[in-house]
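1st attempt posting a full record on here, be nice pls
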Amino acid sequence: MSSDQILNLVAMVSYMLLVTLIGIYFAKRANRSSEEYFLGGRSLGPWVAAMSAEASDMSGWLLMGLPGVAYWCGIADAAWTAIGLAVGTYINWLVVARRLRRYSTIAGDAITLPDFFSARFREKKKVIMTIAALFILIFFTVYAASCFVTCGKLFSSLFDANYQTMMIIGALFVILYTFLGGFLAESVSDFMQALVMIGALSVVLIVGTVSAGGIGVVIENAKAIDGFWNFFTTASPTVDANGVQTVVDGVAQFGTPNVYSALSIISCMAWGLGYFGMPQVLLRFMAIRHEKELKLSRRIATVWVVISLFAAVMIGVLGRTLYPTEAALLTKSGAENVFITLSQGLLPALFAGVVMAGILAATISSSDSYLLIAASAVSKNIYQGILNKKASDKSVMWVSRVVLLAITLIGVLIALDEDSVIFQVVSFAWAGFGATFGPLLLFSLFWKRTTRAGAVAGMLTGGVMVFVWNLLIKPIGGIFGVYELFPAFVLSSLVIVVVSLITPAPSAEIQADFEKARATSAASESV
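the predicted structure (as tokens):
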């Protein structure tokens, strides 16, 4: 191992130790009860709520996946996706947060998303709870796998080590950390990790731009690549049979650019719809200590997202200026290492290790959220909610830890493929949550006529359609090539409306809960 690699390792191990100490510090409190473990006792302040929500949401794809897309084919895909995410973030905090915080306490003091849906419709037979918990388990396992892929790519790239070995080591660290501290430790460390992530992105972008000769040089280089610096076209790298971009006389080759249609723009902007169904974000709304603090949280979250997404896209563009023919970046999967390449090439080794801890920060902040929420869905909602209603808090927490191990194992198996593209793995799981829970959450919070039958039908339609569209319809291409979240979200919404209208109206008790949530939300907004 070289001296630079040793310094990288020292910086990253130091960071991992710091995160572990946070978990140990909060372990005692986390184990007081399942509410403390899974929701932190509804005690999050506005800064922690906002930044932990965004850090857990963005994951390693912000520092690897999104810059990789921009590096590979230009700004169109990456920029329209970023715009959709920024808009979705703001609207989610503005429209959903306050009502969900209030309604979740009225609806049985719910501490998980399946809890809330089940209590919202006053279920006796926990059908909604079971379906919601199963979809959470499925899609968060995929999400966790994307985080493990990030760990594997990061460590194998840094230390010239075997990808699978590094990926497994990363997964073991994540599971250890999640075991220790639960939701509160996760949220506090996510706050710190959000600072590391935005700092890492900003430092690499600024130092890289100066090294390239200024922003003008970077943009001119991007414009010189046909279709690269354009919101309505995408560059088309010329690749060989192995998917490696062709380089001739030291110049990376590109073919005729692809037209970026209105349908493509809608497809990317649809990423913003996913926020309405993201459990890791929605839980922060439920866990904040006071509704009045949500306004500050919204501002913090929006500013963080806009800065981080802009920096991530521009890092991909910057990479094409500084490292246009770097061998490690000349495949679609390899392009996702552009942030690592820039960090190693531009910064002193120890500082580069600290900056690249931003990738580790993003990965940890997301994967622990995913694992914890998936475990809570099984232990709290299925085990205690259905199979053993008299189960003690202690047994629920033991079951959750067994589930954590099982999910981690499956996630590791999914992540074994070294050529996995992080952006694609994340996009599928994002669509799954957005279409399964997004429409139902919005209708549950804002339409009193929503029925239990409509909720069940809508969830099933959204979740199943993500698979159907991605695997069977999308490959047809043309107008069917749209991102699966958009059609699945629309169909789920239509099904909720139609089924709710043709089934009996909700009971007087359910409607009273709805009116109480609406009244208290309106009152708090006027304060």
